[in-house]
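Students often ask why we bother encoding 3D structure as a string. The short answer is that it lets us treat folding as translation between two languages. Here is a chain of 417 residues written in the first language.
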Amino acid sequence: MKLFNKYFSKFGNSIYILFNSVLDRGIFFILYVFLAHSVSKTEYGFIITVFAFTNILQGIFDLGLPFYIQREIAGGTNFSAQINSILYIKLISLFLYVPVPIIYFALSSDVNIILVIIISIINFCWGISAIFNAVFYGSNTYKESSIYLLISRTILIITFLILIFTNTSTEILLLSFVLSFLVQLKFFKTHLKNRGMILFKDKIKISLISKELKSSIPMGLGVIFVLIYDRADILILQKVSGLEIVAFYAVAYSLYRSMQVFITMVLIPKYTAFSKSFSSERALNRNEVIHTLLFLIAVGCIIITILNIFPNILIRIFYTSSYLPSGRILKYLAWGFGGVLLNNYTGVILNSIRKEKIPAVSTGIGAFINVILNIILILKMGVWGAVITTVITEYFVFILQLSMLLYYKKKNILFLN
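And here it is in the second language, the structure alphabet:
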């Protein structure tokens, strides 16, 4: 118990991060489970494909801004003008973002374009929400972010349940997510106003936007590449194996991804702490880095064990026995969890010490290899090619980033003595 308390005490704000991540991921997980039960496997596969495509697209238009603003605020930067220019960037990008999925999916026949538009807007709103949370996390106001998120998502859950019992269409059901994000925006504006900041009061400053993008885009590239190798398998599977196979794979992948909230709960507050430490000391604390790593490894071992022992039980509980083929997929996907955990951690450290170009390059190489391997292996092995590629990619990116961290450690610019 003393050993547990020793490590757990280092993550005081993690409970709020865990709450936020579980709440948001849980709601989307519930949505996917509900759709898996209420629509055909083909339609479910199409919805998952649209979410996958627009997730990648949103990552491109995110431009690394959430990571940038969190790091700058943690380092002591006055963010009053910055947050306004960042939101201007996001609003302008909306008009470039929405037409892309419409054009992409309109090339196929019998496509529900309205559904494509709604899902696209949901993912765009998700990007705005990430900026809100980054502001709170960077300024160590974790509790407030959880309160505002809880209220907005409670409204979503109530609306969602009402719509389910009235047998509404899938399109209207998904619109309730947009409503929740608008409520969150209102709370965010009120919070900033109470701190003397008015959103959209300042005019657009090109020089400030240019400065922000110059630093944020390398971090954004890393996120984009991660999203590409995180979603490319679904898009390739859809073309090669069909929507029903996508549905089985997506069920396993959603459970695999949902476990990653335990990584997020640790790394988000550590990103703030590491950024603050490097801004003031130009180095990180050796003990804090090592203790965080040990805690993450312990969590990773527990998660991999659970997913290997109980895959079919988890599938039955959430998706019923009709998706049991997903259990075997989940069992083997679980081995990629260690790679996800480790490369996320090395990425956080590199971004904290202002070496954001390295995660961008390493994940870019990983994304390239992932796409090539997915095309080759999915053509030969089907869904198992996607599983193997996912596991290989996660560890490959970690090895690249670890090699660079060891280089900086050797140069005595990573740890405090």
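Translate back mentally: DSSP finds 18 helices and no strands in the chain. Keep this in mind for the problem set.
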